[in-house]
Task: structure prediction
Amino acid sequence: MKECVFQRCIIPQCRATMDVSETAFRCPRCGNLLDVDYEWDRLPLPRSLAEWENTWSQRSHPLNFSGVWRFRALFPFAPENQVVTIGEGQTLCLRSDAVAAYVGLRPGRLFLQYEGLNPSGSFKDNGMTAAFTHARLTGASRAACASTGNTSASLALYCAASGQMRGIIFIGSGKISYGKLSQALEHGALTIQIAGDFDDALRRVQDVSRQLGIYLVNSINPFRLEGQKTIMYRVLEALRWQPPDWIVVPGGNLGNVSSFGKAFAELYQLGLLRQLPRLAVINAAGANTFYELYEHRGLRWNGGQYDDNLITGYMRELDVNQRRADTLASAIEINRPVNLPKALRALEICGGVVREVTDQEILDAKAQVGAGGLGCEPASAASVAGLRRLVTEGIIQPEETVVCILTGHVLKDPDATVAYHSDDRNLFDQKLGRRGVRRATYANRAVQVPNDLAEIIKAIELYA
Ligand SMILES: *Cc1c(COP(=O)(O)O)cnc(C)c1O
Ligand SMILES: [Zn+2]
Result:
């Protein structure tokens, strides 16, 4: 198997290859990102996607129980006995007519892919199981990441559950939600809080990992993205292998959109899918690098010859103006997305758009997702808020089929939720108001009642 798998520079004009066991995750020739690549014609593959449904009947097989590894034929980089799995990827793609009405789609046209159901509560587990497996293949004993929270929660959980690795996480100061921080601490990861934000932490962790030979699990790691491809396989499966018209996903470090694009490009290349969905990436307005570069400055993949000056120029502007990413959606509070080139490639393959949404729109959409029966954290709701904008703009039509990715669980960031629903004006202002949130249109206020039976009954009759 090993000789059919390698790492390859994403730039078509370079195409340098490396052994699967390398862990530098940068092209030695040109310094760009790497893909995990396969010699598909030497690997066994099903003739149709529907054949994967058979693995559902083999759930006592640990690899088929995992919603990630049952698709392992589409990312065959590891021998089966090396796989580290804790049952990730058991997620749902649910039709939501309530949220469809909110965003302006016809009933039956909107599906929510609920990745909050993963063991650590976010989609990151899809990638972590793959990165962990690769780490094990390389003989690593320590793994590190910089994180806005969910990557560290996932890393900490996989370290603790597998008992094979020491986890080291870098977080920016004061940026991480308590739900996520509590997971890192509870699962015993070494937690290093540096004075800086996520972008600073990501630079540091790369230096430290290189110097100390620690395995890096940030989404610069191409093996993580292999696991995240399975989110799209599960979406297709839920839709009986009919691709939707659109996939809408929040954009932070742009790992998800990159892996989705790779998943679809490969399925197309393998003749397993004839038509590709379009991709919409949604930035928070306070961390909108991708939106700015793609929609306003015309940055395109351009067959690999993208204009790097546009990117470096924009980053210099950020520095000069001392602009820091700032949004309540902390999981996408990132100004220097590491997977930018791969995301450009994904949008070229699938025909994509990028939009930005305000924290106000994010929180309103989040409340609508919650009222519709699925809970998510703020960053996840950016997908729904972005979809609403795209329908309003007429880019997405009411009768098109759309899947929004709900990337993380509602319990990840309870502070934002409580502040939104609270009638405590101080709490609201302190948590949300300073981010430009003015209204809580869909607030579900707690009702204050004296400790008196008659008053309690009166309140219930009044409100329910
Ligand atoms: C990591 C994360 C994102 C951003 O995903 P990228 O792949 O970095 O673009 C969005 N939402 C949640 C909940 C996350 O944890
Ligand atoms: Zn290269």
DSSP finds 16 helices and 13 strands in the chain. The longest strand covers residues 166-172.
